[in-house]
Amino acid sequence: MSGPSITAYAKVLRSLLKKEASAIHLMERLADLLQVDLSVEDSSGSMLYGQPNKNEHRFPLRENGTIYGVLQANKASGGLIAELLELLVKKELEKKSIGSEVLGLYREINMIYNFSEMISEKIDAVSIAQTALEEASQIIDATHGLFLVYEEELDRVIEMASFGDSPDRGANIAKLNHLLKELIDRGTSSIVPRDRIANNPALLHLKSVMYAPLKVKHRTLGIIVLGHSEEKEFTAAELKLLTTIALQSAGAIESAHLFQKGLKEARDKEEAIREMHEVSQKFVPKEFIKSLGKNTLSEVALGDLAEREVTVLFADIRGFTGHAERLEPRDNFLFINSFNKRMGPIVRKHDGFIMQYLGDGFMALFPKGSQHALRASVEMHKALEAYNKERQEKNRFPVKIGIGMQNGSLIMGITGDVDRLDAAIISDTVNTASRIEGLSKHFGSSILLTQFCKNNLSDPEEFEFRYLGPVQVQGKQQPIGLFECINGDERTLYEHKLNTLGEFKRGMKYYFDKEFAMAAVTFQKVHKKNRNDLPARLFLNRSAHLITQEIGDDWKGIESMTRK
Fold this sequence. Notes:
The protein folds into 4 domains: 6-105, no CATH class; 121-259, GAF domain (Beta-Lactamase), CATH 3.30.450.40; 282-434, Nucleotide cyclase, GGDEF domain (Alpha-Beta Plaits, 2-Layer Sandwich), CATH 3.30.70; 490-551. Helix content is 50%, strand content 23%.
């Protein structure tokens, strides 16, 4: 990179002697000490400081042999002042250069952040490709663009998005399929030399070309190509920006593929659960029967109902779908039974009962309230620690669960018709508890409960909590305060959270006081002490994001959760 021009030196010299009082004061003090009369003019002879005179000593102000100003003095010691001026000019230019670099980096970071935010909303590869090319064309001067991916099943490179008129683009991509696949396999960014462009008939409409790979982990999905129909020198900085866009696009496409795969898995999972429920619809929990005031199933009748104040608990096995893919169906069934036979007794031990098995989890009711539900939750996590030790000895994957709970009233009853009866519960409490369990994944907490549920505890001092703020869940008008119970965490993580309760609380206060920089620093300290503290990482990322956002006066820190 070339340094500042002589014109830049001249401008800085003029600015120092016209506007910078500190520089003038320093020069005048030195002149007084040396008893020197002086004046300064630019290279064209225009006076910048002092009065025109015929001082016998002239000291050119130079940079790389070129004069950008002259200092005149009546003594030879004026040379010291000339050296001072040269140094001041050079330092001022260095400061301006650093400022320009910082501004450039800020703009680049801002671009990357905005682009990340845009593609995070996309769930299909075509939309991601179109957004990537639109963003690239706005920050890089290019007349043509191609977003290409390699389809392994078809063994060919296909176009996902493009801009600019290109004759026979489809045919040219097909002709260059072998070359494009080689570039993709190579996985490097490059500015194409002009002789290679001129020697390729498919690129005759372009004068300049560069490309960057769509890399994710240890493989390359495709490439982004930018070109210009006129003579243009793509710069290394532009190639770097294109590479950044390509990397982020590749990650987004990979996430989109995983999302679509997960969607299919979720549908398959729901179908499997539905089939399981069809088989088990004739079975009603005996505790449910007792809640209706009956002793045996034969005593219940269509229309029997009772209203109860209960705590509803949902438990879910984390990452079950991924584990299930690696097991045979019979092994999956045995695994679920092994899990359930450990959890069911714990629920009953604390005066609860499992209302419904959900394949990779269950819904349980605790008529005696949240103190019993929370004790059961903690004990379930402790039981899993022992279970996982057994599994580790057999080289099997560890089991983790997330638990969410809510307290409230619900209607229990028998519905159906004269030939088919079913146990049913009707309550918004159930929906809310299910949402809370889903939020335990979002926050990375092992046990999550609402403010209302916590207020129902008969002995809250038995447990340790961290407040995670209010959320607006789907279907609810009022926000719900959430608390994380840390007693179910594995020992190292529990001790970390216990020892940092004060720091975490301060971070939350900074967060809700809109002091996001302080919040980010506080949560970073907490997270740095234990990288498995996922709520701390979540609020660190939130705080860092909000630092750059314009927050209205009505901002309350309520996070809206639109997904179930």
